[in-house]
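Researcher: Quick test of sequence recovery. Tokens follow.
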């Protein structure tokens, strides 16, 4: 099996951080988002990663080569024409079933179902309340897709496509993509991969929906911080071993604090990640992610994302993203 990973997006909802850091390499609970996704496929028989790059492609390629022990092929998406356009770039390199993973989410899914179900494909999905934000799937009584609708205005379904798909009938998939690319584009001049899935179903292919135990969005600030909280509550929380070297401090769990962090006269937590080399004094940090070598003195940071090497002195940062000296409100 080959794994297609589309990574060309710019991550505009995490600006200004994503001017410098590719969206899949934004860190949550101390690790890049993509690491959690790659953990999920480590037990599968993956022949090759086909990575669709774009924004900050050199950084993405370097990270994947250095950190993952799987052969990888990189293809640049020079024109951002949507998810169908992205996956179509992998077509010359696919000659077997494929797993397609969009890595701006962290998911908890049983991928071994691939080996247990005789079907043309599997789309993992989760019930959501804000169905208008997603592509939602209508199924028959057996759980097989009959329709998929992008961002519906009425609740035809609350079963959201989470961006994780296994396609055994890869030839039919690429036929569907070719058909989609011949139609007028959708909103923003984009072509949707979901239209290719509809093409497959309309021609008799069977796409099963499979549940996920958890699905955590990392594409915008508030949901990224919710994902950080979830990960801290489920195994990623840590403080350096030994007696805390932090005089006159209150640490409110859960928190992730790396070795080499200095804190004094401060309140930190809950739901805070602070990475190595950071310095916090006479400050309050809550529900936030601070990168490496961040300095906060007589400041307050709440509900915010702070990139590496930033300084916050005598200021309050709330519901914001800060990187390279630039601050933007959370979107």
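Model:
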């Amino acid at each position: 099996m080959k794994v297609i990973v589309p990574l060309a997006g710019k991550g505009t909802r995490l600006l200004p951080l994503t001017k410098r850091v590719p969206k899949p390499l934004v860190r949550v609970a101390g690790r890049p988002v993509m690491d959690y996704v790659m953990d999920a496929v480590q037990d599968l028989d993956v022949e090759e990663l086909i990575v669709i790059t774009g924004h900050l492609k050199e950084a993405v390629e370097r990270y994947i080569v250095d950190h993952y022990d799987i052969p990888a092929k990189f293809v640049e998406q020079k024109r951002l024409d949507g998810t169908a356009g992205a996956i179509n770039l992998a077509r010359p390199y696919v000659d077997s079933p494929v797993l397609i993973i969009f890595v701006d989410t962290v998911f908890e899914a049983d991928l071994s179902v691939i080996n247990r179900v005789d079907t043309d494909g599997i789309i993992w999905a989760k019930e959501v309340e804000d169905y208008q934000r997603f592509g939602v799937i209508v199924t028959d009584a057996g759980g097989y897709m009959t329709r998929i609708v992008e961002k519906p205005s009425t609740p035809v379904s609350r079963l959201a496509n989470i961006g994780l798909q296994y396609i055994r009938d890869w030839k039919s998939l690429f036929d569907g993509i070719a058909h989609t690319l011949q139609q007028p584009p959708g909103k923003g001049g984009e072509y949707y991969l979901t239209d290719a899935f509809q093409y497959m179903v309309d021609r008799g292919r069977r796409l099963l929906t499979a549940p996920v135990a958890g699905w955590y969005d990392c594409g915008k600030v508030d949901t990224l911080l919710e994902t950080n909280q979830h990960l801290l509550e489920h195994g990623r929380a840590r403080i350096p071993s030994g007696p805390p070297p932090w005089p006159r401090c209150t640490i409110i769990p859960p928190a992730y604090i790396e070795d080499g962090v200095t804190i004094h006269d401060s309140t930190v937590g809950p739901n805070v990640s602070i990475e190595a080399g950071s310095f916090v004094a006479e400050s309050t940090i809550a529900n936030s992610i601070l990168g490496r070598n961040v300095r906060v003195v007589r400041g307050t940071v709440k509900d915010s994302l702070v990139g590496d090497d930033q300084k916050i002195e005598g200021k309050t940062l709330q519901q914001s993203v800060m990187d390279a000296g630039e601050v933007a409100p959370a979107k």
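The chain has a mean pLDDT of 93.
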